[in-house]
């Protein structure tokens, strides 16, 4: 699909879409829960749908209710298929693999698209240490596993992604680990582990977090499990980050449905907007952002690498050179995101330099719009966040911006273009 975004001054309010980070974790916890889970405000992104399919193949029964919620009946992991597919979800493959290995069954786990190119060597190194046989394709998908997982003391590397740890935490909890510790070296994206622990606690499983260096399981800590649990999926700070940046660069916007006390890592967008000088009003149930003259900022995105794309769109309209740390977290996303941002924003006249672990974005100079975003055609690289960042940059460009492979947004935010239209944006799509 091709989408053409026309520049305009936006105005209006939007209800944030459901967080796929919260939704996928809730699906996993519901699968592991022996009883009924009612999920309120479920997501419908491609990653969310892949998570629902995964838990169904692992034995859960999913019922869609008339009020939009879903109910999940489960007695734990009991596969009804020996083939599982995580779609393109990085969280899905990393979280559900150790969970699936709670079963004694031999299971083949696969994915599609960019996920086939993302390294999974972690599993080759770690799974055999916890009693799981694995046969992979040189560290890539597909691979075959056979459990059952045996929770023992283990030390893992947390520098590539916290998602591997999320899967181990959930699987260890379901295996009733007692007196067992997972030690982690160099853990990145700590807020996502906060989210994992928060979801686990909502389902009655307590893990002791020793300053993110180790995580302990003790039977005495555990709560009595409820037969029926209701869980409400949070609004998505990752998707809302693009909307909030849109307000900062192209008008004014009110975003509702976000939890200001959320553990989601991408809530840090508020700090970046504040540092850039946007007019920001944070209230309990809504966030308002209005355009003001913006200044360059310095931001460390090591723990929230998904913010790079909206931060680049923001930096393009800030006076001076913005510096963002954490580029080494971008190589194994849906695309090599640092290179993709540099290439595609370069087509729109925005200069981006990559220096070791830093990204430098040249914005406005001396109050003059010498680096105004130019009209042009970009490609999403089948990366949902590249597509959305390009669309936001287009709102204050000197002409329309056309995005090729624009349907990539369905991975996380299917309503993104329709939400832009609600704000007054002219979006023309072609198949």
Which descriptors apply to this entry?
26 strands; 29% helix; globular; 431 residues; UDP-n-acetylglucosamine1-carboxyvinyl-transferase, Chain; 2 domains
**How many structural domains does the protein architecture include?**
2
Tell me the β content. 25-35%
Q: Enumerate the strands of the largest sheet in spatial order, edge to edge or round the barrel.
A: 24-25-1-26
Biggest beta-sheet profile: 4 strands, mixed
Distance between the termini: 4 Å
Q: Average pLDDT, to the nearest integer?
A: 95
Question: What name is given to the CATH topology of the largest domain?
Answer: UDP-n-acetylglucosamine1-carboxyvinyl-transferase, Chain
Annotation field: number of helices:
12
Rg on CA atoms, Å: 21 Å
Structural class, please? alpha/beta
Describe this structure in words.
There is one protein chain. With 431 residues, the chain is α/β, with parallel strands linked by helices. It has 2 domains: 212 residues, UDP-n-acetylglucosamine1-carboxyvinyl-transferase, Chain (Alpha-beta prism); 213 residues, UDP-n-acetylglucosamine1-carboxyvinyl-transferase, Chain. Helix content is 29%, strand content 26%. It contains 12 helices and 26 strands. The strands form 7 sheets. Strands 24-25-1-26 form a 4-stranded mixed sheet. Strands 2-15-17-16 form a 4-stranded mixed sheet, covered by helices on one side. Strand 16 and strand 17 form a beta hairpin. Helix 1 packs across helix 6, helix 5 runs parallel beside helix 6 and helix 7 runs parallel beside helix 11. The longest helix has 14 residues. The model has no long low-confidence stretch (mean pLDDT 95).
């Amino acid at each position: 699909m091709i989408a053409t975004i026309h520049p305009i001054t936006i105005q209006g309010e939007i209800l944030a879409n459901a967080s796929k980070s919260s939704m996928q974790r809730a699906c996993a916890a519901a699968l592991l829960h022996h009883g009924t889970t009612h999920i309120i405000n479920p997501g419908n992104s491609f990653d969310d749908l892949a998570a629902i399919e995964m838990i169904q193949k692992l034995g859960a029964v999913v019922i869609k209710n008339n009020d939009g919620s879903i109910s999940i009946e489960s007695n734990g992991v009991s596969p009804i298929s020996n083939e599982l597919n995580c779609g393109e979800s990085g969280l899905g493959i990393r979280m559900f693999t150790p969970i699936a290995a709670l079963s004694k069954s031999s299971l083949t786990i696969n994915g599609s698209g960019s996920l086939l190119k993302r390294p999974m060597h972690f599993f080759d190194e770690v799974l055999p240490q916890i009693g799981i046989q694995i046969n992979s394709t040189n560290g890539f998908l597909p691979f075959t596993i056979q459990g059952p997982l045996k929770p023992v003391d283990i030390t893992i590397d947390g520098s590539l992604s916290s998602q591997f740890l999320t899967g181990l935490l959930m699987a260890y909890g379901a295996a009733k680990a007692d007196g067992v510790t997972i030690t982690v070296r160099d853990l990145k994206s700590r807020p996502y582990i906060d989210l994992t622990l928060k979801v686990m606690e909502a389902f009655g499983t307590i893990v002791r977090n020793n300053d993110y260096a180790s995580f302990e399981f003790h039977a005495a800590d555990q709560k009595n499990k409820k037969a029926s649990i209701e869980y409400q999926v949070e609004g998505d700070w990752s998707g809302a980050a693009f909307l909030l940046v849109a307000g900062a660069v192209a008008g004014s916007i009110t975003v509702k449905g976000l939890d200001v006390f959320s553990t989601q890592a991408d809530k840090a967008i508020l700090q970046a907007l504040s540092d850039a000088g946007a007019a920001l009003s944070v209230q309990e149930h809504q966030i308002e952002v209005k355009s003001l003259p913006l200044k360059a900022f310095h931001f460390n995105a090591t723990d929230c690498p998904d913010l790079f794309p909206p931060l680049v769109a923001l930096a393009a309209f800030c006076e001076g050179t913005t510096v963002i740390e954490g580029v080494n977290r971008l190589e194994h996303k849906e695309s090599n995101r640092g290179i993709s941002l540099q290439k595609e924003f370069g087509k729109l006249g925005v200069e981006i330099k990559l220096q070791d672990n830093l990204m430098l974005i040249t914005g406005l100079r001396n109050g003059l719009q010498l680096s105004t975003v130019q009209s042009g055609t970009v490609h999403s690289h089948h990366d949902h966040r590249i597509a959305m960042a390009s669309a936001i940059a287009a709102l204050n460009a000197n002409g329309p911006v056309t995005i090729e492979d624009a349907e990539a947004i369905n991975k996380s935010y299917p309503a993104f273009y329709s939400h832009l239209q609600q704000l007054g944006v002219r979006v023309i799509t072609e198949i």
